[in-house]
Amino acid sequence: DAGITQSPRHKVTETGTPVTLRCHQTENHRYMYWYRQDPGHGLRLIHYSYGVKDTDKGEVSDGYSVSRSKTEDFLLTLESATSSQTSVYFCAINTGTSGRFSGANVLTFGAGSRLTVL
Amino acid sequence: QKEVEQDPGPLSVPEGAIVSLNCTYSNSAFQYFMWYRQYSRKGPELLMYTYSSGNKEDGRFTAQVDKSSKYISLFIRDSQPSDSATYLCAMMGPSGGYQKVTFGTGTKLQVIP
Fold first, then answer.
1. What pLDDT does residue B97 have?
2. How far is CA B101 from the centre of its chain?
3. Is the CB of residue B75 less than 8 Å away from at least one CB of chain A?
4. Residues of A with Cβ-Cβ distance to B36 under 8 angstroms
């Protein structure tokens, strides 16, 4: 397994509060991603990282920020949560360098963080 | 028009049937083609990937890519109730550097015992 851990797995919060989701990997992969998944929209990229302190925006980045101070951790922050950010958030890493899919340019996902903003 | 189109289903089949899941795409730069399986309230799990054109087989699963038609398929033989899940296709450009992964919206499959 790629060793991806997301925390918290479930969170309920109120509108206007800050929220941070954490993604932790154990295998030193370079590329990490945050997606959100909503009915009818599928998986949409929020932000991604290509190294420590190297991040960039995805297609739905408004209202979100990220940080990567260590290779193994990629944090997603909602500065002031809104009800439209109620979703399931998935972290993913490009595992093309080791394991079952070694040599391939493919993503392995974490188990997800279910966020409800009231 | 979306870059990747996938019929959302749901698709209901009897146990033991052969299942065919498909996606079409418009971006000729895609080189990696992936199929993910997602059980309810779980993260997507990579089933198979194919690089460029051709077929790939893994147990009961076969992935096919036809780049000339911009069409990919996943076949499941001898389908089982445990195959009931949502299947997402995904596509990516050449490796090296950041490459955007484009997902289909998923096809929900139900295998009836």
1. 57
2. 13
3. no
4. 109
